Amino acid sequence: MIPAIIQSMRPRQWSKNFFVLAAIMFTLDAHHPVTDFARVALAFAIFCLLSSGIYLINDILDVENDRKHPVKCKRPIPAGRLSTTTAGWTAAILLSAALLASTALNEQFTAVAAIYTVLMIAYSSVIKNLVILDVLTIAGGFVLRAVAGAVVIHIMISAWLLMCTVLIALFLGLAKRRVELVGLKDDAVSHRSSLADYTVPFLDQLINITAASTIMAYAMYSFFSQTGARHHYIMATLPFVIYGIFRYLLLIHKGTGAGSPELLLLEDRPLLINMICWTLSCAVIIMLR
Fold it and tell me: What is the tens place of the pLDDT at every residue in 182-227?
C-alpha cells in the first residue's frame, strides 16, 4: 500500500514547486542568512505535501474518468491498488500536516498556502471543467508558489517575475490541454468536459501568443527590472529561455510526453541541460555582481 500511496503523491511532479525558489534565487546578491535558505527549503517541502494531497483528491474525484484513460488508468486509485478511503485519509493528513507546518514560518506564508489549497481543491472539483478558467487557475497556482517563496523570507517579488511566471504557466497549461485533446481524440470530451470547447487550432493560437509573450516578458525583465538594472548581464540568459520554449514546442508538436507534458523538463535531456544551464548562469551572474 505504501508504494501505491507514494506513486499517487506524484513525486515526479514536485518539480513544479521549484517556483518557490524563484525569489531567493533572483536575490542571491542580498547575502541571505542561512536561515533564509532553510525557510525556503521548508516552504518547498510544504508545497510538495500540499500538491501531493491535491493530487490524491483529484484522483479520487476523477477515478471513473481515469479508468477510461489510456495512461491514467494505471494510477493506483483507478487501477484498484489504492482505495479511495485510504487515499482520502492520506490527503487529509498531508494537507493538515502541511498547513500546520506552515505556521512555523509566518502568517503571510500560511495565508498563501491556505489560498493555494482552496484554489486547487476548487480546480479539482469544478474549475478544471470550465474552458479557459481551467488554465488560468493553473497559472494562479504557479504564481502563488512564487509569492510563497517571497513572503517566507520577507522580500518583495518583482512584478516582472510574476508576469513571467503567469505566462510560462499559461504556456504549459495550454500545451497540456493540446496534448490531451490530440491524444484522447474522440474520447477527450468524456474524460474532461472543458475539452469540448477547445480545438487544436485555437489552442495552437493561444500557445503561440503565450510563448511569444513569455519571451518578451523575460526580455523586458532582464532589461528593465531592478534585477536587470543591478545585473546587466542577466540579459545573456535570454537565449536559454528562447531555446527552452522552442524545444518544448517542438516536443509537443511531435507528440512527445503525451501522458504529462510538464514532465518533459525531466525526461528530455536537451531541455533538462538547458534548464540547468539557465539556472546556473542566473545564479553566477547575480552572485558575481
Answer: 876 666 555 666 777 888 899 999 999 999 999 999 998 888 777 6
Q: Which triple of cell numbers denotes residue 82?
A: 489504492
Would the CA dihedral through 145, 151, 153, 155 be positive or negative?
positive
> Measured on CA atoms in the order 4, 53, 69, 12, is the torsion positive or negative?
negative
Find out whether 56 and 91 touch, Cβ atoms under 8 Å.
yes
CB 164 within 8 A of CB 218: yes
The H-or-E segment that residue 34 falls in is helix 34-61
All cell numbers assigned to 83 = 482505495
Split at pLDDT 50, 70, 90, the class of 231 is: low
What would the grid cell of residue 223 be? 532589461
In angstroms, what CA-CA distances link 36 with 8, 22, 29, 114, 118?
31, 13, 13, 21, 27
Q: Which residues contact 99 (CB under 8 A, 6 or more apart)?
A: 50, 110, 113, 114, 117
Which three three-digit cell numbers place residue 168? 510560462
What are the counts of helices (DSSP H) followed by strands (DSSP E) for the chain? 15, 0
Nearest alpha-carbon partner for 227 in 277, 150, 158: 158
What are residue 98's phi and psi, to 5 degrees?
-65, -45
Q: What are phi and psi of 164, to 5 degrees?
A: -60, -40
Write down the mean pLDDT value for the chain: 86
The Cα–Cα gap between 180 and 164 comes to: 24
pLDDT reading at 258 higher than 50: no
**18 vs 244: CA distance, rounded Å:** 16
Q: Which three cell numbers stand for residue 241?
A: 529561455
